[in-house]
Write a structure and sequence with these properties.
single chain; alpha/beta; Arginase, Chain A; about 25% helix
Length: about 260
């Protein structure tokens, strides 16, 4: 898809589900309230084997979700905020390995078939669960984003031809529990520093094909305090506006991260 066509398509999709659309240069940015809504864009843009960098206070890697047997374009409505990545891998929208960066811990974790031990995900499979075809991870169908699969720590990211930068604003200010952090940890404050360190990392990466941002304003499950969400959103958008026009070349970047 040509860059201008991509912008036009993303803008139209944003209007469909009342998401907010921006663009920086030729990079489309969409902002949703709930995280599963980003799947609507991934699916309807017909992305294929995209590299996913998921920036979030939570892994969102739960792995039990009903199959999209009717091939609905609104399949995102059947998903939850913690399990939309698994079907994205199953339907070939997102490739393995995938990456989760948690600014609260400062760690980037990789999940893929070549990882040793806990970070290993071979792919997905369909199983029957109470009469419903259900998508699960392989080899561990009981995947938990924090306990069963802590992932493999990495210090570099290899990016393919398509690159999704997926950001949850609770990555910077989280009013609930943050994965891989102590229970008493307070993740609401200090978001300026977390945004700064994340933008510094992003400046080393190629230009994304698509940026999806979630405000985590999910009714009773609000993970970013409404008092801070506009401020956090404004800071990350301003940072993206500075970084995206100066993104590094993908081929040069991948040459640097090869083992």
């Amino acid at each position: 898809m040509q860059k201008d066509d991509l912008l036009t398509k993303v803008k139209a999709l944003s209007q469909d589900i009342k998401a907010v659309f921006y663009s920086v240069g030729h990079v489309p940015i969409v902002i949703t309230d709930e995280h599963n809504e980003v799947y609507y864009f991934w699916q309807n843009l017909a992305l294929s084997k995209a590299t996913l960098l998921h920036i979030d206070a939570h892994g969102d890697l739960e792995g039990t979700v009903h199959e999209n047997s009717s091939l609905s374009n609104n399949y995102y409505q059947a998903l939850d905020i913690n399990n939309f990545i698994c079907p994205a891998v199953h339907y070939g929208l997102v490739d393995l390995p995938l990456y989760w960066h948690n600014p609260h811990s400062g760690e980037t974790l990789q999940f893929g078939p070549d990882n040793p031990g806990a970070g290993r995900i071979k792919g997905t499979s369909i199983v029957d669960m109470f009469g419903h075809p259900t998508i699960q991870w392989r080899p561990n169908p009981r995947l938990s984003s924090i306990n069963s699969y802590p992932g493999e720590l990495v210090d570099s990211i290899a990016v393919g031809d398509q690159f999704i930068l997926d950001i949850d604003l609770d990555a910077f200010s989280c009013s609930g529990h943050v994965h891989n952090m102590p229970l008493r940890y307070n993740g609401e404050y200090g978001y300026e520093e977390r945004i700064g360190s994340t933008l510094a990392m992003l400046r080393t990466l190629p230009t994304p094909t698509l940026v999806t941002i979630t405000r985590s304003q999910c009714g009773s499950e609000t993970y970013v305090d409404p008092r801070y969400v506009a401020r956090v959103e404004g800071l990350i958008l301003a940072g993206l506006a500075r970084y995206l026009p100066n993104s590094v070349d993908a081929a040069a970047h991948n040459d640097q991260v090869k083992p």
